Amino acid sequence: MDDLVTPVSKAIAQLKGLLGDRLVTSASVREHHSHDTSRLAPHLPDAVVFPRTEEEVQAIVSACAAHGVPVVPFGAGSSMEGHTIPIRGGISLDTREMNRIVEIRPEDLLAVVQPGVTRKQLNVDLRETGLMFSVDPGADASIGGMASTRGSGTTSVRYGTMRENVLALRVVTPDGEAIQTGSRARKSSSGYDLTHLFVGSEGTLGVITELTVRLHPIPEAISSAICSFPTVANAVEAVIEAVQYGIPVARVEFLDEVAIASTNNYSKLGLPVAPTLFFEFHGTEAWVKEQAQLVEEITKGHDAISFRWTADADERAKLWQARHDLYWATKAIIPGFELYTGDICVPISRLAESIVAARADIDASSLKGQIIGHVGDGNFHTAYLIDPNNPEHLKEADEMADRVVERALAVGGTASGEHGIGIAKLKFMRKEHGKAVDVMKRIKAALDPLGIMNPGKMGDAG
Amino acid sequence: MDDLVTPVSKAIAQLKGLLGDRLVTSASVREHHSHDTSRLAPHLPDAVVFPRTEEEVQAIVSACAAHGVPVVPFGAGSSMEGHTIPIRGGISLDTREMNRIVEIRPEDLLAVVQPGVTRKQLNVDLRETGLMFSVDPGADASIGGMASTRGSGTTSVRYGTMRENVLALRVVTPDGEAIQTGSRARKSSSGYDLTHLFVGSEGTLGVITELTVRLHPIPEAISSAICSFPTVANAVEAVIEAVQYGIPVARVEFLDEVAIASTNNYSKLGLPVAPTLFFEFHGTEAWVKEQAQLVEEITKGHDAISFRWTADADERAKLWQARHDLYWATKAIIPGFELYTGDICVPISRLAESIVAARADIDASSLKGQIIGHVGDGNFHTAYLIDPNNPEHLKEADEMADRVVERALAVGGTASGEHGIGIAKLKFMRKEHGKAVDVMKRIKAALDPLGIMNPGKMGDAG
């Protein structure tokens, strides 16, 4: 801290009285809150606060409003596009001490949690109920953070994203008021849908202080299947047909040849090196078996090279562990290199061509890379291996990632399927949303006239 | 039209040049647009317009903005709480000539439609595709109107409400701009979720000019079941257990004893006069059979009096026809009387007590009435039979309906499950949403600073 009396030093002094040692200005804690998992330049907050209650969040936001100081909510720090980087300094509001599971209501298939609760923490607490919180973005993210980025993952094709799984919120708005959005009813035709306005707003409209989330029954039986195809188009067409047939696949993950080769190498799966789908089916014993049989039939009609299904829990665990280890498997291709990750979503009819074009880009570049996808949703990720110390690599990766997005937008898709806008994708907001960006900005200005909530991000884009 | 030059006469003169005989000021057409299906007092619009294109909607809204004249969107006129009544006069914007199905994309499980397309019209066009538009509010409503009221119905327990089934919109905002919200991708983490802000906003934030809606595969097999219980609680607990078990019931409708008696009388069903569930199961032949068996087991555990299931299409059609004819069956109880309909939604754990209390209210009143419900969602409707010429009846019905809502709000429910706020439920907005109403009003003021879009309704509530 310097001796100069600035707005931020006034806000910090005011909050120190309230929070004591839960307001931290040490270099190490500020550094931890200066970045997320992205490659983007870090920026230090002036202080980090660790509130425990909604009232404390109200006091923090009110103090920052009074002094015009930025507030940047921070969950588990697992965001991937720079969401939590406090690019204009101010206060990083870390929700880790708001980690209480407030209520579990099995009959209503819902849980009420504070924003710092992580998805794994909630699922541990649910163990006795036979229910699960379904959204799984890979990282053990905070549920508040997952709501803020409208996160999803492998199970969203069946159980939905955070959009479908957040029923109600408590939010501290930029003027320090606490509001409730939504209710515990499963549906409602009452009032503007503020819940969905806050879900995905990346901390630019307020601070989420409580979430009511949907739970789903843990299925009686689960089975998996692995299926390889001669081409990407065959694989995608098989998925389209399975979905059109009404088979409620619980997961269907695409891995391209390079991803299969690296996972073979890392996880010793011994799979044919070809475009591959990992399926998971949920249901009763009989229904799971029937789903696998129906999908096998469908894949045969699309020239599948092989179809292997299993209801064995160990074999299934091995398969999904390999899928989850893909990050490490890919990094292992060139030791010391980093993964540069892309994320777009297209209408599923345009998925095959989008993947093929992204693959061709990689093959024509000097970089190695792979493509994986939550293919039932039309969502896929590119991962380029780059030497973090080589600016040419970064430039080449940037250009390729931009082309993937441009092509997605050209076919009616979106610049982000699940990672969000953060900082890295601000440049696509106007292109994707056109004049709707002006409506977004008017909403931002109406709710946050001082511009204190996560400034320079989604609310100010385009 | 009078000779006085008023803002509205100027707007009408301006629009007459654009629309010719698609701007109508005849008494009969104005009368038709002065009411909906509710008991609420009608109010005449000054004129009714029938645009065919988004550009025409833009011109209409721009002219109304220029002269400060209200614009009230009108679909099929089947709303139930006064949504479309132009209580401050102005222009009723009827979307019936915007009834083109723009595009059907079977591979992407979506259709693009103009707002005046009705749900039945879309389903006729889908016949060759094996797909269906699932939302069924009973009436053959316009899809634009269903989106505006966040409508739902019997199938929402499985396939979702309009909230889950609208993927993207085109909207003319109150300043006459046309924007696109959402995309054709099934999921997105890009930008504020404007789609969900407009869905359910009851024409107070803009005019919907195009909708991208989700489609679902028509199931290979469908079966139905009817099950009677000694008490409401038994019936509701059976539903809760079935849902917790993970059985994806496609419909589950509750009818109380009075509803069963009237449907027996009207549709000759011969059912036991007891709290009853109508189930429908969708899936493959084997899976549908298994679902029915599992549900039968579950209902036995909750003291079911009888369980009758059928995969026979004619018997099923008869059953659901009877459910759809309930309106007429109930009206037939006392010829000349009208139905006064209520609509709330509660967490399902509070459903049994809510229904029992609503039933006790009716039994203690001078009126006859019944209760039916989309019970898998916790949504139920009260219907009181009133003599429309007896103000005492209306007063008694008003008081009972209010108590149903008050009790729903007290247990974490909502003032409307699917009929919306309109005029009739404005008085509950502040009670349900608290300070969130101020956020809604700030959004309304930011998007519609002149207050021309359906004024005096949801955007100005509380």
Task: Write a concise keyword list for the protein shown above.
homodimer; 462 residues; alpha+beta; Uridine Diphospho-n-acetylenolpyruvylglucosamine Reductase, domain 2; Uridine Diphospho-n-acetylenolpyruvylglucosamine Reductase, domain 3; Alpha-Beta Plaits; eight-stranded antiparallel sheet; five-stranded antiparallel sheet; 17 helices; 19 strands; 37% helix; 20% strand; globular
Describe the structure.
2 copies of one chain form a homodimer. Chain A has helices at residues 7-19, 27-32, 54-67, 119-125, 143-148, 156-159, 162-165, 194-198, 232-245, 257-267, 285-300, 313-324, 326-331, 351-364, 391-410, 429-433, 436-447, and strands spanning 23-24, 47-49, 71-74, 91-94, 101-105, 110-113, 131-132, 166-172, 178-182, 207-214, 216-217, 221-228, 251-255, 276-283, 306-310, 338-341, 344-345, 368-374, 379-386. In chain A, strand 18 and strand 19 (379-386) form a beta hairpin. The first copy, chain A, is an alpha+beta fold and 462 residues long. In chain A, strands 12, 13, 14, 15, 16, 17, 18 and 19 form an 8-stranded antiparallel β-sheet that branches. Chain A has 4 domains: 7-95, Uridine Diphospho-n-acetylenolpyruvylglucosamine Reductase, domain 2 (2-Layer Sandwich), CATH 3.30.43; 101-217, Uridine Diphospho-n-acetylenolpyruvylglucosamine Reductase, domain 3, CATH 3.30.465; 221-327, Alpha-Beta Plaits (2-Layer Sandwich), CATH 3.30.70; 334-410, Alpha-Beta Plaits, CATH 3.30.70. Chain A is built from 17 helices and 19 strands. At the A-B interface, strand 9, helix 8, strand 11, helix 9 and helix 11 of A face strand 9, helix 8, strand 11, helix 9 and helix 11 of B.
